[in-house]
Amino acid sequence: MVTQDARSSDGFLPFFREYTKTWIHAVAAAGLTAFGTLSVYHRAFIALALASYVVPPIVLYLWRPSVGRDDAPERADEATAARDRAATTADRTATGDAALERPDAAAESVDGDGHDGVALGSDDDRPDVDTGDGASGTDAASETERPHAREWRPVDVPTEATLRDVCVTDGGAAHAVGEDGIVLSAPGDDTEWSVALADGPAAQGEELQGVDVTADGAAVWVAGDSGSLGRLEPETGLHTDYTAPLEITNNWLGVAVAGRSGDETVLLIDGSGAVLRGRYRDGEIGWDEPVTPGSGSSLSGVALADASVGYCCDTNDAVFETADGGASFDRVGPVGAGGTLEAVATLGRGDCLVSADDGVVHRYGGSTWTPERVGEEAICGLARREGETIACDADGVIHERSGTDWDAIDAGPLESLIGVAVAPDGRRAVAVGDEGTVVERR
Quick check: pTM over 0.85? Predict the structure, then answer.
């Protein structure tokens, strides 16, 4: 894999994406519309319409190098502004250093009911937030205790295959899965990535869609196409193939695991809207008959907070909650999303986030759903820990929220990101995506 730092980020297209978020672009678009309307009276207005829209970005782009990116009049990129503030504000830097020494600093700002204060910022284009559903806010102290003073950096991995999901243990070990059955592992937070499995649990090269790990990090479950399913023990290197449980060969679109190794609950979701529950005890796994929580629409995300509580979402705007480890589900949607639901994350009962392909994340506080505008691209990956939420999108952007606002993180030009995970202690976070893209914060 080519290191992403080697790619240029100063071309016209990245600049134009930033420019379209500015007020100058809004005025230019209005001019294009106004002059275009007047062209019915005189053809000369066509030239004025085109000039009013095309000239401003070209002039700004050509002028921009002479003053430098940090002095540009329009800083639409929130990541750049955040980096500038961090560089010039001494107390913010000191707080970042403290976060490195105490990775649980952000968790200390969480309120008593376990919610980490998902809320909207003050941007005019964000929808109103209903604060009457019992979800908690976060005080100003959490804004100064941001856990992401460390930078996200692309890393080299021994594959160029698309990676679709990733998990990170409390001890910092990370595992990722993707195309052709590839399983990558980095057993510690300071170790390099290596290939744990080259062609999947059944050695058939089927694409793997999901990965999750037991609470103690001792067992990793991977799942994917044609019923592919496997259990790996990173410490011993033991790999067991459980492909086609109950002779089901559907494509598994996600996997969620809860409990310690040897006492595991495993949930698998498929494109027919079914959930398959397995319980691993004493070296053997037993499977219940599949259940279909909704209408049969494809399930797109699944997550377990513990061996009892979890959530899954489908492509028909529905979210389902389980309080018995996946034996049964109750519908807690519809969400009211304007796009298709992509991913789900949870910390416990009454605490759920789902993301959609229109750049919006929806928060469930136990009774109602509240939307948050995060970006403009599909939010493909979503990860939660106490005091922090991380999302990644199809444009290769990482978004973090540990206070009341989402921050877009400048990690360099990246391929589309599909999955993201963060360790419960926050000391390592990993996002993965197209062409073997892996970007880490540690």
Answer: no
What pLDDT sits at residue 370?
96
Query: What is the rounded CA–CA span in Å between residue 231 and residue 374?
Result: 35
Contact 172, 427 (CB under 8 A): yes
Nearest Cα neighbor of 441 from 415, 418, 419, 420 is: 420
How many residues belong to the chain?
442
Q: Mean pLDDT, consecutive 10-residue segments, the chain of 442 residues?
A: 39 66 72 73 76 80 50 41 42 38 36 35 38 36 45 96 97 96 92 96 97 97 98 96 98 98 98 98 96 97 98 98 98 96 97 97 94 97 96 97 90 94 95 98 90
Pairing mode, if any, of strands 379-385 and 388-393? Answer: antiparallel
DSSP state of 316: T
**Could you give the CA distance from residue 420 to residue 96 in angstroms, rounded to a whole number?**
22
Q: How far apart are CA 319 and CA 332, in angstroms?
A: 6
Nearest to 56 by CA among 36, 75, 74: 74
pLDDT given at position 48? 79
Paired with 269 in beta bridges are 254, 275
Distances (CA, A) of 293 to 28, 158, 256, 314: 49, 39, 16, 10
H or E element in which residue 94 lies: helix 90-101
DSSP-derived secondary structure for 148-197: TTSPEEE---S--S-EEEEEE-TTS-EEEEEGGG-EEEESSTTS--EEEE
Nearby residues of 414 by Cβ (< 8 Å), 6 or more positions away = 4, 154, 396, 397, 433, 437, 439
- The token duo for 280 is 């691993």
Query: Contact, 172 vs 189, CB < 8 A?
Result: yes
User: Which value, in Å, is the radius of gyration of the alpha carbons in the chain?
Assistant: 23
